[in-house]
Every structure is written in C-alpha cells, then in structure tokens.
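Q: How would the structure tokens look for this protein?
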Amino acid sequence: MLRISQYIRILLLIFIGSTIFCAIFVTFSNFLSEKIDKDALSKPAQEDLAISVTKWNFIRSQIGKMSLLGRWLLSSEGSSTPPIINKKRGSYLILVWKHGKFLERRHIKRFTNKKFSPWENCTAKRCIVSYRSKDLDVADAVVFHLHLTQSATELPTRTKWNQKWIFLTDESPMHTFLYGNQELWKYNGLFNWSMTYRMDSDVPVPYGRTISRSFEYSQNKNFSKDFIKKLKTKLVTVMGSNCAGTNRRWHYVSELKLILGNDLDIYGKCLNEYITEKVFWHGYHKLAIPVIMGAPKKNCEQLLPPRSFLHVNDFANPTALANYIHYLNQHDDKYFEYHEWRKYYKVINEHGYFGSISKHYCRICEALHYNFPVIKAYEDIESFWNKKRDCTL
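A: Here is the predicted structure in token form.
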C-alpha cells in the first residue's frame, strides 16, 4: 500500500446508509402531476425557471412534475421568487397535528434552547404555526408527521374540505413509519400535498440543494488550496449507523478497510464507535469529497455540484476505488479539480441539523402562496411514495 504524506490532503466521507441515500436523492415516479394554469404565470417566468432547472440534468417530464416552488428552489442565486398566486386577507394558519412540540426542537429551536422564527429569511411570512388541535376547523393547512403516526385512525375527522392536508416525512419510503408494520395504502385519499425530500413534492424539503452562484467565488477562502490542505488530517472517513442493507455496503467498507488500513476511519455503530447522526452535507461543509454508494449516479448529478463527488459505480471494485483515492492524494492538480465547483456553485443546508436554519415551515408558507390552487388528493399514495420501487438498497 502506498504511504501517505505528512499532510494527508483528502478527507472523503463515504455515506452508504440506505436511509440517507434513499432519503437525500430524488427518485421520480409515475405520479400524475397537477395541471398548471399556464396563464397564471407569465411565459418568460415559466421558461426562466424551466431553463434553470434543465441545467441540472432534469428532463422535461421531471420538470413538469415540479411545482413552481420546486423549480425555484433549484434556480440560480438571486432568481426572482414565483408570483403570489393565492392571496388571502390575513395570515395562513398552519396546524402541526399532534407532534408539533416534538418537531419544534429541530424546526424552531434547531436543537438549542432558543426559539427561532420559522419565517427568518423566508420569502413568504404571512403564516402562523399552531400545535392546538382545536384549530383544526380554522386551519388552512394541517401537517401530519407520518414517521410518528401509529395508524391512520390517529388522523382527525375532516370538517373543512378546502384545507390542505399534508403528509410530512423526512425519512425514505423504507422507513416512513416508526411504529408498527403499517401499509401506506391505508392513507389513500387522505392527503392533498406531499412534503418530502423529493423535488417533485408539493412542498419540497430536500436535505440540501445546489444552486449556481451569481458571481465567481474564486477569491473566497473556501477555495484557497492552502486552506483546504491544512484542514486535511485523514484520508478516508466512513460514517453510518444503519448496519442493514441488501447492497452489502458494509462488506464493501470492510474490503476498503483491509486495503486502506489505518488510512480509513469508521464512525458509527456499525463496526466501531457510535455517532448519533449520519452526516452528508458535512462532506461539502468540511471541504471534503463525498464518495457515494446507493443513490443512482444520475440522481447525484441532478442534485449535487458537477464533478464534486466520487461514485462507487465508476470503480470496478474497492481496490480500484482505493487506488484512485491514493492517486488523488498524490496529485494535487487532479484532487483540486473536485473542488473547482466551489467557485461557481453553492450547497445549501436548510434542514435544521448542524446549526443550520430549518426551512420546513417556511416552505409550507411559500407553497400556500405560490402553488397553483388545484384540487387534488393522493388517491394512490404508493404511486408517489413506494419503498419497493424506490428503495432497492
């Protein structure tokens, strides 16, 4: 095995838990998207958003399934917000059913003892969040957190049919429910909007997103080669806590460990120490190059900066991957090609973890203002959210 230099220049975070990668990357199903009223938005505005999203390798049919909010979230830095289509006198009332206090620790407190406004830097602010069940009859939208819902019978009797009932899950379809062996079809016909990491959700809440910068960023310290090199103290780090999976990911890691030896550190309850959260966006935040297993490469190319990651499918076996990692470690010019994107793109974390802002309630408020007022329901919810189709790990 090649020896590494005194300053190990590359820190690669390999994230391979099925929960993370099914939950981070978009998978597009045959879900019938709502019909868009073309006259409600000017043609130039529609085309601008579509062109911006096309740059991320989304095909036209995929773009057509996105709401204007979803398209805008992928548009370039500084892009104009969608027009306010739904105008209401007064504020929209958003009721978080039953689990509002639990969700508050992340989406309001950001895992601190301080409460933050959910409308901070939000493009739509005329909204109020309630946890009070008695507001059911007057709420404009009701959010149901499926992960903590024990059965469909927990949902209240619907009394206001012009409400938006929203199912929220930050998990993959494989782990939608925490309680019981529930069947998703039992929730058919109950929800009007989806709120997931998928960009074709009615309310998209991705773990992170990439946007084009409005100007070249090469003078920023985050692209200083010396600054990046000085931060690197390890060659490869694997982080994960889901020890299961049919793609034999931990077998793959074990082979890498045999090849890389002490140059590979493993954190998580699988094989070594325990860390409570699996980290993806820290890969970019810590100026590392993510190595990805599980999510299809084409999905990665749609959501991540160009030439910013390695994908295991590009390598014949763990030995080939390890050899390329050593190659990058010894050739600065090739290694820094994987950081060149930092000049032109920005990765944004808005999920409430690691000190970041949470935009969940902001996104609901924006959707209430921007989404087209189409009457719809998820009559076959599994056509949109399906573990057998979308989680083949």
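Confidence is low (pLDDT under 50) at residues 1-41, 47-51, 274-280.

The longest strand covers residues 92-96.

Upvote if useful.
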